[in-house]
């Protein structure tokens, strides 16, 4: 497999995958719905207790197997080839997630362009109903959302075609620092708002009445989603890690940076929501990003520029995440069928044009067509995120805990004995004994 050229490249690409829409639109809503600081506290424990160990296990599998997310299993344990099915599940899930995630990344691009042109803030009475209506109108449209999605797919294609070093690593090295600068700017602005103190209190106020088993389960689910676990992404990216990369340290750095972005998002959003006196419901999912935030920007001077910067931040976050989701399939197609990178990129991106367009239409003109009461978009989201992701997580942990030889795990964590790994025993214990039953609990919990 090709290798990333520097330590910075390793961190930038992996953080680029982890930091995405999950940090911006999922995290604040989860915190708010699950009792503020209490959820945060449990979330942080989940990151350390499960996130970092499972991430390290994925890195070990990817770098040690040195192949795509499916073939690694046969390479590590040639006698247990059928475990490749776990990899196939991950490739399929990441492709399905990609198909609707790409549509949302198209929306962020549209809002970036609408902010730059000033159209988003053109209406005199820029209130919630106006923004709700304009978002509804936009999403329900036929062509425009598809065009934006196609633009994002083509942008992905351009980076993917340039390869692991010249494309993925290079763009991440440029975009990740930009993302952190933008975050810092927004933190400064938000903390200087009059409602900052109140907002932070709201963000960090522990609400014990909200504590229930589902708080823990939601926190664990959010940790998996946000860290891009069990999707084949980390296996694929770590197959590009050089032999000298310290896996436990990298997993810790990536997890902490992802956590930092989520926390900064809270610091940005809650003071703003408090200052402008919005309701709890304004924090939920897509309405937070596409309705509540524009409403806040509309009340600030220089609305259109702040708005453009924010949607730039979001587009960048989504872009580096879609690249990582797509690379799982590119790497798989390329290795499995021995085709050129160019052919593999086309095989991945051309069907995606159709699949993502269908997803886009399914929340617009085709919204009447439902499967189990859900639009195609929501159906894919539910199946992939709530079922395939935890299932993949369990199988991955079982494989690394019980099937892959211990000496393989040890060799990867110690870089073949070159470094000492104090965390090895703890990580293996968690992956073997603790993570599988707990993730199983998440999987089952949603059905009871
Ligand atoms: N981790 C990224 C995010 O939080 O947005 C991207 C992502 C990867 C989302 C895998 C969902 C997922 F299943």
The CA-CA distance between the termini, in Å, is 44 Å
Helix content: over 70%
The whole-number mean of residue pLDDT values reads 91
Based on Cα principal axes, name the global outline: globular
Number of strands: 0
Number of helices: 18
The ligands found in this model are:
4-fluoro-L-phenylalanine
Biggest beta-sheet profile: none
Name the poorly predicted regions.
none
The secondary structure category is mainly alpha
Radius of gyration: 21 Å
Strand content: under 5%
Order of helices and strands: HHHHHHHHHHHHHHHHHH
SSE layout:
Layout: H1 7-18, H2 21-33, H3 37-65, H4 71-76, H5 84-117, H6 128-140, H7 143-161, H8 164-191, H9 196-204, H10 213-226, H11 233-238, H12 247-275, H13 285-298, H14 303-337, H15 341-362, H16 376-403, H17 406-413, H18 424-445
Helix pairs in contact: 1-8, 1-12, 1-14, 2-10, 2-12, 2-13, 3-10, 3-12, 3-16, 3-17, 3-18, 5-7, 5-14, 5-15, 5-16, 6-13, 7-8, 7-14, 7-15, 8-12, 8-14, 9-12, 10-18, 13-14, 14-15, 16-18
The protein binds 4-fluoro-L-phenylalanine (PFF).
4-fluoro-L-phenylalanine binds at residues 18, 20-23, 97, 225-226, 228, 231, 321, 385, 389.
What does this structure look like?
It is a single chain. With 448 residues, this protein is mainly alpha-helical. Helices cover 76% and strands 0% of the residues. The protein has 18 helices and no strands. The chain has helices at 7-18, 21-33, 37-65, 71-76, 84-117, 128-140, 143-161, 164-191, 196-204, 213-226, 233-238, 247-275, 285-298, 303-337, 341-362, 376-403, 406-413, 424-445. The radius of gyration is 21 Å and the shape is globular. The N and C termini lie far apart (44 Å). The model has no long low-confidence stretch (mean pLDDT 91). Bound molecules: 4-fluoro-L-phenylalanine. 4-fluoro-L-phenylalanine binds at residues 18, 20-23, 97, 225-226, 228, 231, 321, 385, 389.
């Amino acid at each position: 497999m090709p290798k990333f050229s520097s330590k910075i490249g390793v961190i930038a690409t992996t953080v680029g995958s982890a930091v995405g829409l999950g940090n911006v639109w999922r995290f604040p809503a989860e915190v708010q719905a699950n009792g503020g600081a209490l959820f945060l506290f449990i979330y942080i424990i989940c990151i350390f207790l499960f996130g970092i160990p499972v991430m390290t296990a994925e890195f070990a599998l990817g770098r040690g197997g040195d192949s795509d997310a499916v073939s690694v299993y046969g390479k590590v344990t040639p006698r247990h080839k059928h475990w490749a099915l776990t990899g196939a599940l991950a490739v399929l899930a990441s492709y399905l997630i990609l198909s609707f995630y790409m549509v949302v990344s198209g929306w962020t691009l549209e809002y970036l362009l609408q902010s730059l042109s000033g159209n988003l803030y053109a209406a005199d009475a820029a209130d919630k109903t106006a923004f709700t209506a304009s978002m509804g109108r936009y999403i329900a449209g036929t062509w425009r959302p598809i065009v934006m999605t196609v633009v994002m797919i083509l942008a992905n294609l351009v980076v993917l075609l340039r390869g692991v070093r010249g494309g993925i690593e290079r763009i991440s090295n440029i975009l990740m620092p930009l993302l952190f600068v933008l975050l810092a700017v927004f933190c400064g602005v938000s903390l200087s708002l009059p409602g900052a103190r109140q907002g932070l209190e709201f963000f960090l106020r522990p609400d014990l009445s909200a504590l229930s088993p589902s708080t823990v389960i939601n926190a664990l689910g959010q940790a998996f989603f946000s860290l891009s676990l069990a999707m084949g992404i980390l296996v694929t990216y770590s197959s590009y890690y050089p032999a000298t990369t310290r896996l436990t340290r990298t997993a810790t750095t990536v997890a902490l940076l992802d956590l930092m972005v989520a926390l900064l998002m809270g610091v940005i959003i809650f003071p703003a929501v408090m200052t402008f006196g919005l309701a709890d419901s304004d924090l939920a999912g897509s309405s937070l990003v596409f309705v509540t935030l524009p409403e806040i920007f509309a009340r600030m001077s220089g609305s259109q520029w702040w708005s453009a910067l924010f949607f730039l931040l979001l587009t960048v976050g989504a872009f580096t995440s879609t690249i990582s989701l797509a690379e799982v399939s590119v790497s798989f197609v390329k290795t499995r069928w021995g085709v050129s990178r160019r052919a593999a990129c086309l095989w991945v991106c051309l069907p995606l044009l159709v699949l993502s367009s269908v997803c886009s239409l399914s929340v617009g003109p085709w919204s009447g067509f439902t499967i189990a009461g859900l639009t195609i978009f929501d159906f894919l989201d539910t199946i992939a995120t709530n079922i395939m992701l935890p299932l993949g997580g369990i199988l991955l942990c079982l494989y690394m805990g019980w099937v892959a030889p211990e000496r393989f795990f040890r060799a990867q964590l110690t870089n073949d004995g070159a470094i000492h790994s104090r965390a090895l025993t703890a990580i293996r214990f968690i992956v073997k004994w603790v993570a599988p039953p707990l993730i199983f609990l998440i999987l089952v919990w949603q059905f009871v």
